[in-house]
């Protein structure tokens, strides 16, 4: 069940997200304004994800919220497809992001709760998300030429409805609630390892957002065909598969912080390559490095967040991780990266991304060694 949910969810996301800024560009929206639209879902995620995750924890609404938010996101996406005014699109993107941004956090948490003591098997399920993302992205790239770019909206709607239906099949899990939500949140926020981890999530999330938001536009600028653009999405997931598959063995053999560090190093190398290569084919080959980065960082990261979280705060911990990585990091990469791209070009943007990724690695490497608080409650 977790595998099919991951597959359909990431296939839905892979159908639309890599092409969304290209869609805005085809509507005649300038790059500076696209950077604002690209940053809005990230900024809204910073607010909406902890709110929805907190509600899920406090009222034990994990399953229902996941279903409702998937369905409610659809009409807003339809409006984005048919509208052309920047001001109106900006408002609709805000509403769409309020529903869409918490989805990954809720999906991750649902899977972790389902796996319970076998959380180390998370990667085995998550690899199907990579397959879904790659297949959907490649297929949309092929279909855009004969059917137009709006086919990506159809792909998202169909696949997210399938995912919503599958989420109904998840068993109801009676999770022990936090005895004192705000007290336990204070305990988590005072854990210096948590601070170091979220700092790494912020800076590496910013670097990844630069790739997610602008790589397709950069390929088009260099003359790449729509098929090559779609292929670049599929290539991203090729190495995710073996790393996700063997993640359970890696988690048993190496510490979670060590795997997070290795993942960040791979991201920095990837961004450096993107900063000085200008051949579209070679740039697509570099996208292979996305796999080891994301699979190592995210598999170890969601397990690390769950490990650090006091009992009953599983969704909230995942929510804050998602808010910082996709929210704050997304703003840093989408808005800040877009401004750099517009003024100094893609090469400079990706080099800056490598630098901030390195900063995240240094901060995490220092704070991960700090002992935990003595009064931290047992992990849930």
Essential attributes:
globular, Growth Hormone, Chain: A, single chain, 380 residues, 17 helices
In short:
The protein has 380 residues and is mostly helical.
Question: What can you tell me about this protein's structure?
Answer:
This protein is mainly alpha-helical and 380 residues long. The chain has one domain: Growth Hormone, Chain: A (Up-down Bundle). 81% of the residues lie in helices and 0% in strands. It is built from 17 helices and no strands. It has helices at 2-26, 31-59, 62-82, 86-100, 103-115, 122-147, 151-167, 181-189, 192-221, 226-236, 240-245, 247-253, 256-276, 280-286, 290-308, 314-344, 346-367. α2 (31-59) runs antiparallel to α16 (314-344), α3 runs antiparallel to α4 (86-100) and α16 packs antiparallel against α17 (346-367). The protein is globular and about 50 Å long. The two termini are 22 Å apart.
């Amino acid at each position: 069940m977790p595998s099919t949910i991951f597959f359909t969810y990431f296939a839905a996301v892979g159908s639309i997200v890599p092409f969304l800024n290209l869609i805005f560009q085809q509507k005649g929206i300038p790059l500076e304004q696209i950077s604002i639209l690209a940053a809005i879902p990230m900024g809204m995620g910073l607010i909406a994800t902890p709110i929805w995750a907190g509600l899920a924890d406090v009222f034990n609404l994990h399953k229902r919220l996941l279903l409702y938010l998937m369905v409610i996101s659809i009409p807003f996406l339809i409006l984005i497809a048919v509208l052309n005014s920047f001001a109106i699109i900006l408002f609709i993107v805000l509403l769409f992001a309020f529903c869409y941004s918490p989805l990954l956090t809720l999906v991750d948490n649902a899977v972790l709760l389902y796996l319970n003591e076998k959380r180390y098997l998370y990667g085995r399920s998550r690899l199907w998300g990579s397959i879904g993302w790659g297949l959907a992205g490649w297929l949309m790239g092929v279909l855009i030429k004969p059917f137009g770019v709006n086919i990506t909206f159809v792909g998202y709607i169909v696949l997210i409805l399938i995912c919503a239906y599958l989420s109904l099949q998840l068993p109801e899990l009676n999770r022990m609630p936090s005895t004192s939500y705000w007290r336990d949140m204070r305990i988590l926020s005072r854990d210096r390892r948590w601070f170091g981890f979220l700092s790494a999530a912020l800076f590496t999330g910013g670097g990844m957002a630069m790739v997610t938001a602008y790589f397709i536009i950069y390929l088009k600028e260099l003359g790449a065909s729509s098929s090559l653009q779609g292929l670049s999405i599929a290539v991203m997931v090729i190495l995710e598969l073996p790393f996700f598959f063997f993640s359970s063995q890696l988690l048993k053999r190496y510490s979670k912080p060590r795997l997070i560090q290795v993942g960040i190093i791979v991201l920095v190398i990837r961004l450096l390559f993107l900063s000085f290569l200008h051949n579209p084919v070679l740039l697509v080959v570099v996208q292979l490095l996305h796999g080891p980065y994301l699979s190592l960082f995210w598999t170890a990261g969601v397990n690390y967040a769950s490990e650090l979280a006091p009992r009953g705060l599983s969704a909230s911990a995942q929510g804050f991780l998602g808010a910082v990585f996709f929210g704050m990091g997304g703003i840093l990469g989408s808005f800040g990266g877009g401004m750099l791209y517009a003024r100094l070009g893609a090469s400079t943007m990706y080099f800056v991304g490598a630098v901030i990724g390195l900063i995240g690695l240094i901060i995490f490497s220092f704070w991960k060694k700090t002992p935990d608080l003595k009064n931290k409650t047992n992990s849930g």
